[in-house]
Write a structure and sequence with these properties.
Low-confidence stretches: none
Shape: globular
Strand content: 25-35%
Largest sheet: 5 strands, mixed
Mean pLDDT: 87
Distance between the termini: 17 Å
Number of domains: 1
Helix content: 10-25%
Radius of gyration: 23 Å
Length: about 300
Amino acid sequence: MDSVAETVVKNIPQINPDTTYKLDRPARALLGWMNDERAKFFLSGGLKGIDKPEYAEKILRTRESVNSRPAGLNQTEILEEPPDELQNHINKLIAHPRSSIFFAEGWTVKIVDLPKVCAAQAAVFIDHTEERVLGIDPSDINSIASVTIPIPSDQPELLPQFDEKRNTWILSSSNPNVRIAGRFSSSTQNSTVFGFIVQVVPSYMKVASLSDRYILCDGYHRAYDLIKRGITKVPVLVRNVVAFEDIKFPPGILQRDAYLGDRPALLQDYHDESVSEEIRLPGGEKLIIIQGLELVAAHAP
């Protein structure tokens, strides 16, 4: 039989942890590498079955622009060795338990020429640009590395709000890597403290080499913002992979021919109006809600 406490907990209204709070956000989509159905999906703001006369013109224009490009791609000079002044940053990454796992998997730090890297993600959000690359000094490689391959302790400060009426902490962020990373409790002579650990899980810009193609695996929004600012040669994690499955792309990427074919999409193409289009898409805002409740559980007579 359940205890009184267990019965009370079972009856507290639950919030679905997978709930997505959608906002309409500006984005750019690589239309030139999409089939008609998917291109219309993005042009309609993520709605299926919507078609407008202007969609066909945009799809045809971007597709013809892609097909007019010369076949083939030379990425032989896309990588450089990191400079000596970055070595201290690299050593800290290798030593930190939360980033050392990547080096154990075979990732290494290289300087990559971002505009030449192949793109597999269908669209990127283009708001929050200043936030993502805020404070970068383009002349300081360590400043750039703090954004592209950050040391876990270099995470940005989180600023939650407290709702007095509901006795609730609320943290809202456009960064999907904000997570509840753990919980804790401690006791003093007169009180006990219970709480949760909220962190920005480290996210690194990663480039995989597959079939002589360098493809961005993670860090698309930072790549977009860096290129927009003219910061094109940046430190990233690089690894050679044998099979496509080793890249571990998230769902919803472009078809393989878009980045492994004769005329692949590149990171610079998000900025090219001849092959991409500005659209609006529903984008999730990450919310973390931590509430303290005081309940009185009455015993049955």
